[in-house]
Design a protein that fits this description.
The structure holds two protein chains of two kinds. Helix content of chain A is 21%, strand content 33%. Chain A has a six-stranded mixed β-sheet with strand order 5-6-7-3-8-9, with helices on both faces. In chain A, a hairpin with a 2-residue loop joins strand 8 and strand 9. Chain B is mainly alpha-helical. Helices cover 71% and strands 1% of the residues of chain B. Classes of the chains: A alpha/beta, B mainly alpha. The interface between A and B is large, with 50 and 42 residues.
């Protein structure tokens, strides 16, 4: 009984990539040849990087498994191996059913082709037969809501229509095992909800889903259990809440020494430590940042520190400058600084923190993305409903107070208050 | 796998592979819908994006033949064999060469041109180069139609040899595919292959009897070099294709060299297909 319930069995799967260290990456044969001629006896300092290491798990039919982890934890590699785009280095995977994968919405869409042609093209690329697509055609078109534009080249579609059509094809892919990567990160809020609904339908119909996402909210609502990946290994596997806890409690530290020389700036001073106290914060949590600054020169310029927090689109969201506090530093050999960003109330998402050491003469050190943090998808308001606040950058503290009104104005509706 | 007792066998097992692998033609057959969809995409795009559409497919060999007959026929004063006008002679050469060069350029760029697909979706990678053959065949058929019109116009009667046309075409395509498959696999790691290849193709065109006849080469080239010239498999293949189209007006190819070319083309094709298959597993990681 239990053996026939198995959908996916992953046994001892590892995947390694070889990175050449001192040899720069050659993208042309001429370059590689020239390098070889100039340095005939140099041996490339090759290092094996394990993107995945000894992954073992089993998924039963009808389960919806969330795969979570930081960037570079091996999530995408795992999905690519499962969907046979790339091979594992060791181990094996047994699939008990037809597998369809959706690593990107609209793969192979061609702007010059019409909506109708793209449905057939994209469907075929995702592994549907022509007959399957014909059978589902009307459903796809009505899901996407592009009936009038079927014979228009998709280059004239709005980006919303484009994404809707692309997802509609994917949503009608009917494999027994479905692999989904981050597709919900597209489209407007309403369409995202529709996509979530479609995914839920897939899950309810008894098919198996492996779902990779950074959106804990989506993982939480969709998945029956979750795998937390950390540095290519399974950090936790089990119920969703626990997996998310694991994900949130881990912090990200960037290896600074390796990149020390390549960083921009004049280099008299360098950040040698740049860490946050946690990896994931609630919106109202204080963020503690610890920095160590070391001197690499005899000169002693005075300097100030500027910290910037970027969102996942690379937009600077917060700027903190020690000059604002009238703090400038004169260099002693080694300095350790602790900064507290008080409850920044940022929206959920991933953020990168960059640090800059500046003197009046210019930049001394610039550390891009020295630390990475996530803000958990939990709104900082009491009695919160997530669906009414979706695309904001900040959630400031606010309150609504009811004032008495003159008698002749009728007042309808609820009395609302919100406070942190 | 044998450790636990299983009542069901897995539909599929994913394991690392290494070394030379089987071509797995059955899998390509399973993806035949993708094959035809990609092929029809290529054809549609080709005729939709150009203002002249199908005219362009005809114009290209006609212009080439026109230039060849002017430069080689008029300026250089070469003679075409038999009673065939130099223009028709050059057009017949261009027909075979066009099939070769378009197959080569399309197959060699198919992986890099579809990098998005290769890194995001699984399918047998051989589907991509195979799908390009369809549009080449359509172009060839259109140009071949023009060839017959030319034959009619100039009152040239093809001989019984015409039935060998599919044979010549097949061998030429195999040779082109073989090189193209290797080039496309190399292009994944080394992008300069795409710049080198057109240059080499250009050289090869002048080393092949497209704009001139083999007889011409044989009379003007010192005898000791004949052997090296014939080593190019395209020499006897293009000569053979032209012979089957123009009938008695063109000299028949040397059959010994034809045999040699068939063997070389088949070997290059097999080498290309298996080499492609062998390098296939790192495409998605490198591209």
């Amino acid at each position: 009984m239990s053996s026939s319930d198995l959908a996916v069995a992953v046994r001892g799967v590892s995947k390694s990539y070889t990175i050449a260290h001192n040899a720069p990456q050659h993208t042309t044969a001429t370059e590689a040849l020239l390098h070889k001629m100039r340095h005939p006896f140099e041996r490339a300092n090759k290092e094996t990087f394990w993107a995945l290491r000894d992954i073992n798990f089993e998924v039963n039919k009808g389960e919806v498994i969330g795969v979570i982890g930081r960037n570079g934890a091996g999530k995408s590699t795992l999905l690519k191996i499962l969907s046979r785009i790339t091979e594992p280095t060791t181990g094996e995977i047994e699939l008990y059913g037809r597998l369809g994968s959706l690593l990107e919405v609209g793969t192979g869409f061609h702007p010059e082709l019409t909506g109708r042609e793209n449905i057939f093209l994209n469907g075929a690329i995702l592994g549907m037969t022509r007959r399957e697509i014909e059978r589902q055609f009307d459903a796809i078109v009505s899901f996407a809501g592009v009936d009038q534009f079927l014979d228009t080249p998709v280059k004239r579609y709005s980006s919303g229509m484009y994404v809707r059509l692309a997802f509609a094809v994917a949503a009608h892919l009917n494999p027994e095992i479905l692999i989904v990567d981050e597709v919900l990160a597209v489209g407007d809020a309403e369409f995202q909800k529709k996509c979530l609904g479609a995914m839920q339908d897939v899950a309810r119909s008894g098919r198996t889903v492996l779902f990779v996402s950074h959106q804990m909210q989506a993982v939480n609502t969709l998945c029956t259990s979750a795998i937390y990946l950390e540095n290519g290994k399974i950090g936790f596997m089990g119920d969703v809440q626990n997996a998310i806890q694991h994900y949130m409690s881990r912090k990200q530290t960037a290896p600074l020494e390796a990149a020390l020389i390549k960083r921009p700036g004049s280099g008299e001073l360098r950040f040698t430590t740049f860490t946050t106290d946690k990896g994931t914060y609630l919106s109202t949590d204080d963020i503690h940042l610890e920095m160590e600054i070391s001197s690499f020169s005899q000169e002693q310029p005075s300097y100030f520190i500027s910290i910037e927090v970027y969102n996942s689109y690379g937009l600077p969201i917060l700027h903190l400058d020690s000059r604002l506090l009238n703090q400038e530093y004169l260099l002693s050999a080694h300095r350790r600084l602790a900064m507290t960003i008080r409850g920044p109330r940022l929206a959920q998402g991933d953020y990168r923190i960059s640090g800059v050491i500046c003197s009046p003469g210019g930049i001394i050190d610039k550390l891009d993305g020295g630390a990475e943090i996530s803000i958990a998808p939990i709104l900082p308001y009491p009695g919160r409903r997530n669906d009414c606040a979706n695309h904001a950058t900040y959630y400031p503290d606010f309150e609504i107070e009811e004032k008495t009104v003159s008698q002749h104005t009728p007042v309808e509706g609820a009395v609302e208050t919100a406070a942190a | 796998m044998e450790k636990t007792v299983r009542s069901v066998k897995p539909l599929q097992t994913i394991r690392p592979t290494s070394g030379w692998a089987a071509l797995n033609l059955r899998e390509i057959w399973q993806f035949r819908d993708l094959l035809t969809t990609l092929a029809s995409r290529d054809v549609k795009l080709r005729y939709r994006q150009t203002a002249l559409g199908v005219v362009w497919v005809l114009l290209q060999p006609l212009l080439a033949a026109g230039i060849f007959s002017f430069v080689f026929g008029k300026v250089a004063g070469l003679k075409s064999p038999g009673m065939v006008p130099y223009f028709v002679f050059a057009y017949a050469g261009q027909l075979g060469w066009g099939a070769f060069s378009s197959t080569l350029s399309k197959t060699s760029s198919c992986l890099v041109g579809n990098a998005q697909l290769v890194s995001k979706v699984f399918f047998p990678r051989l589907v991509l180069p195979i799908s390009t053959v369809f549009s080449t065949l359509i172009d060839f058929s259109v140009a071949l139609g023009m060839m017959f019109i030319l034959l009619l116009l100039f009152g040239i009667h093809p001989s019984f040899a015409l039935i060998t046309l599919p044979f010549w075409l097949l061998i030429i395509l195999m040779f082109a595919m073989g090189i193209g498959l290797l080039a496309s696999a190399m292009m994944v790691s080394y992008r300069d292959v795409q710049y080198v290849l057109p240059v080499l193709t250009n050289f090869l065109q002048y080393g092949s009897p497209v704009a001139y006849s083999v007889t011409m080469v044989m009379t003007r080239l010192p005898v000791q070099y004949h052997f090296y010239y014939m080593l190019n498999p395209l020499v006897s293949l293009l000569e053979g294709l032209r012979w089957c189209l123009l009938g008695n007006n063109a000299p028949s190819p040397e059959w010994g060299w034809v045999f040699y070319s068939v063997v070389v083309s088949a070997a290059v094709f097999v080498w290309g297909a298996f080499g492609f298959k062998k390098m296939e597993r790192k495409f998605a990681d490198v591209i």
